[in-house]
Amino acid sequence: MEYKSNYGGIDFEKKDHVAYLTFNNPQTLNALSYSVFMGIREVFGQMSQDKDVWGVILTGTGRSFIAGADLSDGALNDANDGNLIDLREQRVFIHETMNVIAKFERPTIAAVNGYALGGGAELALCCDFRIGSAKAKVGFPETKLGGIPGYGGPTRAVRIMGITNAKEMMFTGAHFKAEDCLRLGFFSKVVDPEELMPTCDAMMAQIVAQAPIAVRYSKFLADRSVEMSFESALEFERFVTMTTTETNDFKEGMKAFHEKRNPVFTNS
Questions:
Q1: Contact 148/122 with Cβ under 8 angstroms?
Q2: pLDDT tens across 219-265, in order?
Q3: Residue 150 domain flag
Q4: β-strand 189-191 against 129-133: which pairing, if any?
Q5: Phi, psi of 7 (to 5 degrees)
Q6: Do 127 and 172 belong to one domain?
Q7: Does 237 map to a domain?
Q8: Does residue 122 carry a catalytic annotation?
Q9: 253, exposed or middle or buried, with CB in 10 Å at 0-12, 13-18, 19+?
């Protein structure tokens, strides 16, 4: 599949079944703009059709992952003419774009190299894993401006971090250091800056070494189960389990186990 090198300020690279998306507009500290959102929609839409992409790592250039929204972008500016219908439609567009990441079927890692503020923190929460540089700073500063995080952050933060930790980040408007984000459950791991990408690479390499369909359905199961009752989730688990046992990769995995060799998965 043919890709461009850049999607609305997002650099693209692919190697060894892993796609690398790098937010690259250091002049704005990689702030989210309308063109960036359109780039997210385009590149994720393209990757969803590419069976050779088994995982995605997102990061930023310079000293920022994503330092919030680009407030100079009129298409994303809440302080417009006050038309509530337009404001709602704008928010629907943003939420749907964030969901493109959150609902992507294959695993995603946010390699948070620096500032992840406001919309940047909210975008990181759309990923399956967030690994932080020791220099990272994360926060929801919207309350300082009289607003609230509105890119899906409150809803995801409560589910991922727990309600008390999510409230601490949202209510205070503070910039939290990486170790504090680890304590609060925003990060699953914090490493020295020079180890950030090697750590993410190693984790993703371990993931993509597994059967890709099994990983994809595991993600599907986990994400849906948190929205169900326990008994409904068990019934759903039975359905998903039966589905994966019909794949060629499952048969190859069982055969390789009995033959005492490494399996060769074909994503089928």
A1: no
A2: 999 999 988 999 999 999 998 999 899 999 999 999 999 999 999 99
A3: yes
A4: parallel
A5: -125, 95
A6: yes
A7: yes
A8: yes
A9: middle
